[in-house]
Amino acid sequence: MSKVLIITTSLRARSNSDILAERAAAGAKDAGHEVELISLKGKEIRYCVGCLACQKTQRCVQKDDAVAIAEKVKEAETLLFVTPIYYYEMSGQMKTLLDRLNPLYSSDYKFRRVYMLSTAAEDETYTPEKVVNGLRGWVDCFEKAELCGSLFCGGINDPAEAASHEAELAEAYEFGKSLK
Fold this sequence. Notes:
Layout: E1 3-8, H1 16-30, E2 34-39, H2 54-57, H3 65-75, E3 78-84, H4 92-100, E4 113-120, H5 129-140, E5 146-154, H6 166-178
Parallel strand pairs: 1-2, 1-3, 3-4, 4-5
Helix pairs in contact: 1-6
């Protein structure tokens, strides 16, 4: 089985993203995977300054929580990014983290499979398109990895509302169970 890292990127208390991430984690654990779930809540993650020193050293010159997260990403075989959708895009903190994972580009990273779980108040089929495309752009930079799937849970808005959406909770669990 795989070493799965789930990164949930909402900063909201009682986040719907966190609730669904926990269900996905339960499914992945029940499928036999080794699972770690990281929340970006309370983490200090500065913006990438574009110095590109990391391309030579595989380490960021900044000293914040992104450095330790990048090491966990490097060692995971499967990644699941979980984000709320804001203005039809991934959360700002998710984008900032993806930028800060630049040291991994020239490293011997282990991840091969990347997945996304997203949630939004809107429930249109097109709602997650830009979010998935944004993550696909990041994954495309890592030749050994591929975007293997995504799950969108729409129509969820209020804090902790996802806890009462039985169908979406079941979908998130099954999605986690299906991770490779």
